[in-house]
Structure formats: structure tokens, C-alpha cells
């Protein structure tokens, strides 16, 4: 009899763990930085998946079957928005997303809707191939933006998963406290970086430049998304010989040829900044991203190079 009742208890326990109350909330993040933030806010109540990894240009990926499958089972969508994923996210939404993840639903969370979007054009014009027609979508590199985004994510998780609302709120408060402390330290260090002149490959760094008070002198791309032309590069060569430039920045996914060429002609160091975190990054990775980025900028700012 005792054996029978313990068996029943085990079966009931198994059922409880398999029931929706114990199932993790599945978050489909378009970029690794949002999956990382979701792990900070959601802790062990969520399972965050990133559609892209650090070596992929989030403007351009293929809506492959594995992404369709992940989207089909997701409870919440968390992306940059402002058109960053316009080449692939609408296909996934149309083909696979549940009704709760469609635009306008709490499960459809676009970061750009909750921060000030930079470089918004007065007139939207895609005719010249500009891939930032809605403004600059690379919003995560202003570390101040992380706070309202964590809070909004927590609010949405509370709607999607009401029994754990309190857990999300507490985890978010703790994260925001830690983040605010770090933010103050980064901003103190940035005082020495103010006005640091940079050439960038793509306008991936607009928010970092804005936040830290750096100076973007020029872009290797003549327009966002248009690869550098010989004529444009020769213009940049002239510019970088007439004014100081501390570094040429690119992401891990930008092609290296143009920055390598300009660096070889001028002696200005070409630097790859991390831009985002690893795909399955553990908690703490977002903080490490900013630590590493600022440390690399500090090093480049201090160094004298042949072009100076
Ligand atoms: Zn872009």
C-alpha cells in the first residue's frame, strides 16, 4: 500500500513538472544581446534562443527551417526592430509565429519602440539601397538603453507568465541595480574618450558614439548597407590624412578588406570590437561586452600610431 501511494505521488510529481505551470517561457530573440538580456530578466524561468550569432550580420540572414521551427514554439519575440530584421523576420512571422507573437501583441517586443532612435531620416527612401530607412536600429550599444528594455521585458513576461510576475520584477530590480552601478563606472571612464575620432565600417556604433561622446569622422560604407567603392575609399584616405583618426572600427561580421586597406595606407589601427555577445552567453555577458568595448577604445585612444 505504501509502495502504491509513493508511486502515485511520483506520477503526480511528474505530471506537475510537465504541466504548463512548470514549463519554461520560450523567448525567440533575433540577436544574441536580447537573448542575454532575457536570461538576466527571466533567470531560470525562461529559455532564450537567438536567431543570429556574433559572426552574422543581423540585417541579412536566411529564414531557414530551423528558425521557423523555433518561432512556432516561442512564447515571446524580442528583437531590435526599426527595420533591422526586415529582410527575414516578416517571413518567419507570416509562416510560423503564433497569434500571440504578431505585431501589437504583448509577445511582440521590439527594442527600438522603447528607446530614442538615432538618425531617423526626414524622408524614408530605400531607392538608394539605404538599409536604415527607419533610423539606426543598432540600439543596444548605448548601455543606458538596457535599463528601460529590461523593465519592459519584465512587464511583458508578467503578462505572458502571470504566476512568475513577482520573480521577474525582483530579478529585474536586482539586474538594474547592478547595471546602474556599472553604468556610472563606464561613464566615468568615457570622460577620457570624449571626442575620440573614429572611422567606422557600417553605422553599427551610432549609439556607442552618441553615449560615450566619441566622434564618427566617416563611414567606409558610402551609405548604410552599400559596400565601399574605390572612389569613396580614396576620399577617406584624403580625410584621414588631413585630420586625426584614432581607429577604424568594424564588427566581427563586417568584411575586413576596406578597413585593412585604409589602415595599411594610413597607419591608423583597424580594430574589431565585439559588437555583441556569444549566442548562448551566460548571465554577465552583456556587462562583459561593454567592459571589453570600452577597454579596447581606451587602448586605441592612448596609442600613438604612424598616421598621427
Ligand atoms: Zn545597420
Can you characterise this structure?
By secondary structure, the chain is α/β, with parallel strands linked by helices. It folds into two domains: 18-184, Rossmann fold (3-Layer(aba) Sandwich), CATH 3.40.50.1980; 189-302, Rossmann fold (3-Layer(aba) Sandwich), CATH 3.40.50. The chain contains ten helices and eight strands. The protein has helices spanning 2-18, 32-42, 65-72, 89-95, 146-160, 165-190, 206-212, 230-242, 257-266, 285-302, and strands at 25-29, 46-50, 76-79, 108-110, 197-200, 215-219, 247-250, 270-272. The strands form two sheets. The protein has a four-stranded parallel beta sheet with strand order 2-1-3-4, covered by helices on one side. Helix 2 packs across helix 5 (146-160) and helix 6 (165-190) runs parallel beside helix 10. The longest helix has 26 residues, at 165-190. The relative contact order is 0.12.
Which keywords apply here?
single chain; 308 residues; alpha/beta; Rossmann fold; four-stranded parallel β-sheet; binds zinc ion
Distance between the termini: 86 Å
CATH architecture of the largest domain: 3-Layer(aba) Sandwich
Which structural category fits the helices and strands? Answer: alpha/beta
Strand order of the largest sheet: 2-1-3-4
**CATH homologous superfamily assignment of the largest domain:** Nitrogenase molybdenum iron protein domain
| Strand fraction | 5-15%
Amino acid at each position: 500500500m505504501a509502495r502504491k501511494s509513493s508511486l502515485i505521488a511520483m506520477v503526480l510529481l511528474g505530471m506537475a513538472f510537465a504541466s504548463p505551470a512548470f514549463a519554461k517561457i520560450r523567448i525567440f530573440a533575433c540577436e544574441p544581446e536580447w537573448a542575454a538580456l532575457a536570461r538576466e530578466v527571466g533567470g531560470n524561468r525562461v529559455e532564450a534562443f537567438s536567431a543570429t550569432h556574433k559572426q552574422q550580420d543581423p540585417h541579412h540572414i536566411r529564414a531557414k527551417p530551423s528558425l521557423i521551427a523555433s518561432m512556432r514554439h516561442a512564447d515571446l519575440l524580442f528583437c531590435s526592430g526599426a527595420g533591422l530584421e526586415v529582410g527575414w523576420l516578416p517571413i518567419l512571422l507570416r509562416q510560423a509565429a503564433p497569434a500571440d507573437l504578431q505585431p501589437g501583441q504583448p509577445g511582440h517586443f521590439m527594442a527600438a519602440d522603447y528607446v530614442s532612435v538615432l538618425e531617423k531620416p526626414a524622408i524614408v527612401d530605400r531607392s538608394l539601397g539605404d538599409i536604415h530607412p527607419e533610423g539606426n536600429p543598432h540600439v543596444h550599444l548605448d548601455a543606458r538603453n538596457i535599463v528601460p528594455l529590461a523593465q519592459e521585458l519584465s512587464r511583458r513576461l508578467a503578462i505572458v507568465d502571470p504566476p512568475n510576475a513577482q520573480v521577474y520584477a525582483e530579478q529585474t530590480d536586482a539586474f538594474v541595480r547592478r547595471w546602474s552601478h556599472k553604468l556610472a563606472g563606464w561613464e566615468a571612464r568615457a570622460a577620457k574618450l570624449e571626442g575620440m575620432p573614429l572611422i567606422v565600417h557600417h553605422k553599427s556604433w551610432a549609439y556607442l558614439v552618441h553615449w560615450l561622446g566619441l566622434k564618427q569622422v566617416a563611414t567606409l560604407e558610402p551609405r548604410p548597407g552599400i559596400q565601399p567603392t574605390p572612389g569613396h575609399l580614396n576620399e577617406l584616405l584624403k580625410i584621414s590624412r588631413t585630420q586625426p583618426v584614432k581607429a577604424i572600427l568594424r564588427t566581427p561580421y563586417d568584411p575586413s578588406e576596406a578597413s585593412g586597406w585604409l589602415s595599411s595606407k594610413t597607419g591608423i589601427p583597424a580594430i574589431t570590437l565585439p559588437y555583441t555577445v556569444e549566442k548562448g552567453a551566460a548571465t554577465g555577458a552583456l556587462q562583459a561586452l561593454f567592459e571589453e568595448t570600452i577597454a579596447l577604445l581606451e587602448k586605441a585612444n592612448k596609442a600613438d600610431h604612424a598616421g598621427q
